[in-house]
Every structure is written in structure tokens, then in C-alpha cells.
Amino acid sequence: MRILSVLLVFLVGCSSKKPEGLRTVELLPGHTRAQHEATSQGVMITSQGTVSSQAGLEMFRQGGNIIDAAVAVSFAISVERPQSTGIGGGGFLIFYEKKTGKSYVWDFREIAPLKGHAKMFLKADGTPDPEKSIYGPFAVAVPGIVRGLWEIHKRWGKLPWAATVQPAIRLAEEGLPVYPHLVDAIKYESPRLKADPDAAKIFFMPDGSIPPVGHILKQADLGKTLRIIAKQGVRGFYEGSVAKNIVHTVRTNGGIMTAQDLQGYRAKERAAIEGSYHGFKIISMPPPSSGGTHVVQILNLLEQQNLSQWGPQHPETVHRIATAMQISFADRAKYMGDPDFSPIPSTELSSKSYAQAMQKYFGPKARPSKDFPLPAIPDDKTETTHFTLADSEENIVVSTQTINGWFGSGLVARGTGIVLNNEMDDFAQAVGASNLFGAIGGDKNLVAPKKRPLSSMSPTLVLKDGKPFLALGTPSGTRIISCVAQTMLNVLEFRLPLYDAVAATRVHHQWMPEELRIEKPFLPSAAFKDLEGRGHTVKRQALGCQIQAIQRVGNRWVGVSDPRGEGLAIGE
Ligand code: DON
């Protein structure tokens, strides 16, 4: 029935009649709204982990505020998704405070060690060595999550710091049932995890086999580390035995991180990227993430395209979305990096006038990128994590956190249970080289001491008439930008209910490689033909995004945890 109505939208669109009401979209099959949506007039939490969402709720029940809940979710998800994120990684968080109407933007992205330099990922022959930035000791950047959470909690938290770490300690010590995605990640990274004694001890059965779904995975060392952090605060991570063990593991494997790197790490407060879409105000993540800039840029470019005349899954719409993505990702490769090291034109790129000037790139055919090398784009592994929180006072927290690839560098710091990130791969190994996500890097994103690698993470908030209306984010590398922008379009342009906006087919084009990825539930075959006819190389491939979103509907919150994942939307 759904397929029929989409086809109808397509055919009717082709004959350029645009009847209102024919806006049914193909949704991810095998899932129901009831499984992934919650509503509440009080608090709402959507995260990629069931126990982690409940950890947030526990803070509210103890009389804590939205910041206590955000800190608790962050620590808990470190334990629940050790393949995706953790205290050995970094991230970004935006806190919208209702009473002041201000958005506080926190950057606790990892930094390059002091001994890092622009040529550190080149082989002797001068060509990039991707293995070196993805696996092992050189891949590890100085972690930022604990410092970030500490600063945020110090400023706004209500419950004692130790209380916010408690649910994570419990989860690490009592264990969690292994779920399919964790099994897949352990399987895929087996050779690397087995080569590291600490990782091998934690993530495999005593006989060396992969833990089955349902097995209770305990992370005793991580529990001990969390107890130290609960007691000693930020110093428990960046100084003392934990810091010593992190440095020991990196150094004995041949890497360059030092105690000074850890001691010197600082989180930063930054000014949000702001934009608008047909009167809705957008607040998102500035550099060193490229996310906010390009989410706003894509929406600016499309604001003038009047997409609702075709509907969300019509090939005219998809082609225009792809064009906006191509333009934005070409700019990402050229202009983006850490703003503390070189000026980044994020304000210009996210301006209406720039979007106006770039309208000339929209035409009936795909814009070719054939003059450029085509880097291989990896598959749809989902790492990283995102959560979104709202409370009864209409405060909002959106945060995306990561260790980058599955199990980061594959190293676990001796005796701590901390999986060390491989965020160094988000730097450009050389100008024009591509990373784990096929993203091309420019000179602004070369390694330098204390520099932050360019990110795509896009925690984003939308205000309507000055009030929180939509808040969202997702994991999945460069695809984050595309998935966030499209979910926003689905709500702001096509007025889809939040569940449909999240569960609908998504597409992704990152300029290079020159391909348009379309994921399940795909599009009618006539739409594929149409897009190919315009010159797009269309691939049916998952994108790996797992949007965690909250929308204000009347006087309630509606929370949706992407049906593509194992997260939970929970309200009270
Ligand atoms: O910061 C970034 O953009 C990446 N390190 C995020 C990694 C990610 O989302 C992994 N998921 N596939």
C-alpha cells in the first residue's frame, strides 16, 4: 500500500500535478512507531542504549536536572556501547537553557598529542598510511569526554558528581546483556582486539570465542576506573594511575602521547553556528565540527528549492538534496578544520547569500566530480553515539560523543577498561587524502600539536517562535550531516510526524566519491531510473545513522529513537 502511494506521488509528480495530501513515505519495514516513540509532558530522553536512557531518568527521579541526566547518560553509554563511544574519546554538547534563552556549546573533542605533526601518517615514500591513523598507538588522540563532562557539571549540575557516575559503575560491574550490534563489532574487530591483552580479556569468552547475544558482559576494570573518577573527579582521569596507564599503553605500543598531553587537555566553550529555515531558527555545532555549518548550508541551499511541491521521496527532491550535499561536502574538503589554528569561513558558508550564489549548481543533471580521484567509501558500521534530552522546563541537551571507529584504535589502556579512540584518523593524512569515511581533507585539517581533528558530528536544535521545537543528532561519520539535514527537512519542510521523519528512506552524497547512496527502504525503481538518468551513480547501501530526536508537539515532548538501532525513547 505504502509502495503504491509513493509510486503515485512519483507519477503524479512527473506529470507536474501536485495534489496535497499525497505525502505518504516509505518507512523502514519491520518496525512500529510504538516500539521507538515515547511521549511525555515531563522529561524525555532518547539515546542509543536502553540502560543509558534509564540512567538519565534515574537522575531526574533523584531530583537532578537535565545536566546531571546528560552526564549520567554519557557515562552509562560509555559502558553500554564500548564499541561506539567512551571515556577514551571525545564529543560535543549543546545545552539550551530555557530561563536565559541561551545555547551553551561545549567542545570536548580530542586533540593531537604535542609530538603530533603534519607528516606523521605518511609512509617513507611520502604516501598516506591509512592503517597507522586507524589502528594502534598513533591513532589515539588525547581524550576529552571526562574533562568536558566535568566542566559542564561543575557549572550547571545539581546532584553530586559521584551520583552521576553511579549508574555507569553499576552497569560495568553487574554487566549488560550482549546485543547483536556489539557481537558484530567484536567479530569485525577480532584480530585487533585479540592482539591487545586488555581488550582480549574483556571482549571475549574465556575460551577466546565471541560472546553470544544475551551473555552478560562485565567490565570490571572500567568499573574500577569509573569509581576513581567518581571519587577524584577530573583528576582521576587526567592524572594519577588512570593517566599513567593510558600513557603506558600508548607508549609501550610505540606511540607518542605523554602525561603532559593528558594534563594539558582543556574543553572549550564555543559560539553556536546559527541559521534559519523558513522562519525556524537552527542552532548547531561550529568548527572543529563541520557538522553545524553544513547542516545549515544544505538547508539554506534547499530553502529556495520549494521541495514540498514534489514531496519527500520524489526523485526531483532527492536530486536537489544530493546537489546541496555535493556542494557542501566539496566546501568541507576545502575549507574546514580547527578554528584555533586557521580562520574557518563557517559564517560565510552558512550564510543565505552564499546559498543564493550557489543556486547556479542546481540543474536537471548531476554535477560531475570525475576530474577527481575517487576514494573508496567504507561500509555502514555505526560507531559514535548521540543522545537528546528535554525536561519539563523546556531545557534541552543534545550531545554526540565518539571514539571514532569500532573500538577506536583497538587498544584498551592497561588495567582501566578504557577503549582508546582513533580520532587521529579524522585529520587529513595529506592534503587530498581521504579518511575512514572517505572524507577528503585539506591543509586546514593537517595534524598539529594540540589541534582538534575535523568532525562531522552535528548535535542540533531548532527553535520555533523562540521556543525549542526539535532537537536531534546521530552517529555515522560524514553521513551524520546528511541524516540530520534530511530529518530536519522531513519535519520542517514536509511536516512529517517525527517517527516517519526518522524512519523514512535517507540518501547521502558527499561529493567524493561521486555516488548517491540510498538506503532501505529504498525508493520505487522508477525513481532509481530517474536519478540514474540524471547522471547519478546510485548505490543501494545503508548509511548507519541512528537519529535520536525530540520534538515539541503542543504541550508534550515526542521522543523517537531511530528504529535502525537498539536505542530507547523514554519519557515521564
Ligand atoms: O567526528 C567525526 O565526525 C567522526 N569521528 C564520527 C565517527 C562516527 O560517527 C562513526 N560512525 N560511523
Per-chain topology:
Layout: H1 2-14, H2 33-36, E1 37-40, E2 44-47, H3 50-61, H4 66-80, E3 90-97, E4 102-108, H5 130-134, H6 145-156, H7 161-174, E5 176-177, H8 180-195, H9 197-203, E6 216-217, H10 220-232, H11 235-238, H12 240-252, H13 259-263, E7 268-270, E8 273-277, E9 280-284, H14 291-303, H15 315-335, H16 346-349, H17 352-357, E10 385-390, E11 396-402, E12 460-464, E13 467-472, H18 479-492, H19 498-503, E14 507-508, E15 516-518, H20 525-533, E16 538-540, E17 548-553, E18 556-561, E19 568-571
The structure holds 6-diazenyl-5-OXO-L-norleucine (DON).
Tell me about this structure:
The protein has 572 residues and is of the alpha+beta class. The protein folds into 2 domains: 51-92 and 106-266 and 393-445, no CATH class; 270-381 and 458-571, Glutamine Phosphoribosylpyrophosphate, subunit 1, domain 1, CATH 3.60.20. Helix content is 36%, strand content 15%. The chain contains 20 helices and 19 strands. The protein has helices at residues 2-14, 33-36, 50-61, 66-80, 130-134, 145-156, 161-174, 180-195, 197-203, 220-232, 235-238, 240-252, 259-263, 291-303, 315-335, 346-349, 352-357, 479-492, 498-503, 525-533; strands at residues 37-40, 44-47, 90-97, 102-108, 176-177, 216-217, 268-270, 273-277, 280-284, 385-390, 396-402, 460-464, 467-472, 507-508, 516-518, 538-540, 548-553, 556-561, 568-571. The strands form 4 sheets. The protein has a 7-stranded antiparallel β-sheet with strand order 1-18-17-13-12-9-8. Strands 7-4-3-11-10-2-19 form a 7-stranded antiparallel β-sheet, covered by helices on one side. It is globular. The chain starts with a helix and ends with a strand. The model is unreliable at 1-23 and 371-380 (pLDDT under 50).
